[in-house]
Amino acid sequence: MNRDHILACLRERILAFATSRVSRDHAEDLTQEVLALLHEKYARVTELTELVPLAFQILRFKMLDAHRKAFRRGEYNQESIDTLPLTDPADDPPTQLDQKQRVDRLLAAIAQLGERCRELFKWKLEGKSFPQIQKIMGQPSVNTIYTWDLRCRKQLLSLMGGSWE
Q1: What is the DSSP secondary structure assignment for residue 160, as one 8-state letter?
Q2: Among 53, 72, 91, where does a domain finish?
Q3: Is 12 exposed, middle or buried (0-12, 13-18, 19+ CB in 10 A)?
Q4: Is residue 100 part of a domain?
Q5: For the chain, what is the domain count?
Q6: pLDDT 10s per residue in the chain (165 long)?
Q7: Which pTM was predicted?
């Protein structure tokens, strides 16, 4: 076996070992670093019985170094984002006013729609699928429901002033 084939097989073993200990991306980086080091500093080592233990020793040192670096940077004792308090969106009066105005515009526009469009929107908001709505409305084709939905949405958008905002 030539050295390139040996290194290709060794790469798979190193990657598998590293992946079992760290994330896949980090394991790929560690594997690449180990192979680069083997190529640059240990090119004279060609025997498989020497190369495998050497590669795994280098990998262990690289993994320890990564852990020490993460510890030094404070990545292990960071506060969890889940425990941090969230900002209260209700405290923002301009956002509340904007949302209230949009809801008022939407309700006024929906009130101007025909009965069929209001019923269609109601069933969609209840989570009914188009085939279910087809059966409720007694239509022979689901494409009719799709067409009505498109027309109702266009009409609603027009009544909203051409913008959902």
Answers
A1: T
A2: 72
A3: exposed
A4: no
A5: 2
A6: 676 788 788 899 999 999 988 888 889 999 999 999 988 898 888 787 888 899 999 999 999 998 888 888 877 666 677 777 777 656 678 888 888 888 898 889 999 999 999 999 999 999 999 999 999 999 999 999 999 999 999 999 998 888 766
A7: 0.45
